[in-house]
């Protein structure tokens, strides 16, 4: 299974609970509007560290929250479908 990591040299502050709830609601809304195909391997968006360094702290924190959610979905899917794990 692929392993995804954020750069160690970029600070990602913690998000408050209200912002996390807002992001969770937005993710749920996106899934309702565009349901994922249960047979497709979830995507993990790639990033450019140079771009992350230019973002304000709150945006970096929001990016990290969404990124880690994508990684968890990918890892959960791969654990439940070991036949697809080629890495």
Describe this structure as you would to a colleague.
With 87 residues, the protein is an all-alpha fold. It has one domain (17-81). The termini are close together. The protein has helices at residues 17-33, 49-54, 57-80. Helix content is 54%, strand content 0%.
Number of folding domains?
A: 1
Note the run of SSEs as H and E.
HHH
Write down the overall mean pLDDT. 86
Number of strands: 0
Return Rg in Å.
14 Å
Strand % is under 5%
Compute the number of helices.
Answer: 3
Helix content: 40-55%
Largest sheet: none
- The shape, in one word, is globular
Class by alpha and beta content: mainly alpha
N-C termini distance: 5 Å
Give the low-pLDDT segments: none
Summarize the structure.
By secondary structure, this protein is an all-alpha fold. It is 54% helix and 0% strand. It has one domain (17-81).
Write the layout of secondary structure elements.
Elements: H1 17-33, H2 49-54, H3 57-80
What are the main properties of this structure?
single chain; 87 residues; mainly alpha; 54% helix
């Amino acid at each position: 299974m692929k392993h995804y990591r954020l750069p160690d040299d970029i600070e990602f502050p913690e998000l408050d609970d209200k912002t996390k709830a807002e992001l969770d609601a937005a993710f749920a809304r996106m899934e309702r509007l565009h349901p994922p195909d249960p047979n497709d391997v979830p995507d993990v968006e790639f990033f450019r560290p140079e771009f992350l360094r230019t973002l304000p702290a709150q945006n970096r924190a929001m990016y990290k929250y969404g990124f880690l959610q994508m990684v968890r979905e990918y890892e959960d899917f791969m654990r439940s479908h070991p036949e697809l794990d080629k890495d």
